[in-house]
Structures are given as C-alpha cells and as structure tokens.
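Backbone shape codes
____________________
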Amino acid sequence: MAFVVEDGTGLGDANSYASYAGYVAYWTDRGAAPTEDQADVEAALVRATDYFAVRFRWRGEKATLEQALDWPRLCVYTLEGMPIEGVPVEVVKATYEYAKRALAGELAPDPTVSASGVALTATRRKVGPIETEDTFSGASATSSTFKPFPAADRLVRHLVWPEGGSVYRA
C-alpha cells in the first residue's frame, strides 16, 4: 500500500496524519534530526496513525463515511470554542511523537495473559533456591490500559473523551 497523508478532506486511501518531510522538520527543530530511512519513518507514521484508532475515542464524528481515518471530524472545537476543520495540528504533532516511539518499539504490545485471559501485572523470579511468582490483575486483558506517552498524549487530550466514561451534568 502506498503512503498517503490525510490532507484534511477525508481521503478514502489515507494511512497517515503526518508527512515524512513534516516529521524531519519537527524533530530537526527539536535537535533530534532523524537518521532513519524514509521508508522506516513512513512505516512508523502509519503505525502511529493506527495507534490513535485503538487508543482514543475522539470527540465529534467522522466528516464522511468514505474517509479512511478518524480525522477530519465534525462537532469538534478548539479550546477557544472555534470549530476544527481538517486534521488538527495537535494530531499531526502527536503523530510525529508516537512515530518516534514506534521506531523504538511497539506502541501497544499484546499483554501477557493467563490461560483464562487475565492480564499479567507482575512477575518475580529468584535464582537460588529457585522461586517463581506471577501476579495477575483479575481484569480481562481486553480491559488493560495503555502505556502513557506524556509528550504525545497531552497534545490531544482536549480532542478525546475522558477515559472511564464519566457523565457530567450541568
């Protein structure tokens, strides 16, 4: 599949919110000019974009049924109350941040689970005399939380629904 950056119109074949050139400029501005091949960076940008879909529940709704990605969206506003059109700059910047981490490892690795599907939360090993202990959370592995990436997460926090599904009344 070709690398296609969402241009804000709701492309049906887009697979990234951010471009390679933008990634290079973003990290160069921060004194961390990329040394990876363009193909590796583009693959990481796609993985970062995919990560959004499993990590966040965005505010608003998709702008069209035909668009491949979650952005652009309708009924989403800036902190100042202005409607957001296209892909927000915060989403693009967060894509650069997540892509940098995707180059270093898996963003959302599969959890270690017991035979019954319960998530492993701690492991203790002792060499002599031999001792082993696994602690399971009691929660289903599907209800596990994501590893935080503060630099990226903070960029999009106002664009997503709060975790936990709380209902607020006026």
Observations:
- The two ends are 47 Å apart (CA to CA).
- Helices lie at 20-29, 38-55, 89-104, 150-156.
- The first strand starts at residue 61 and ends at 62.
- Residues 145 and 164 are 11 Å apart (CA to CA).
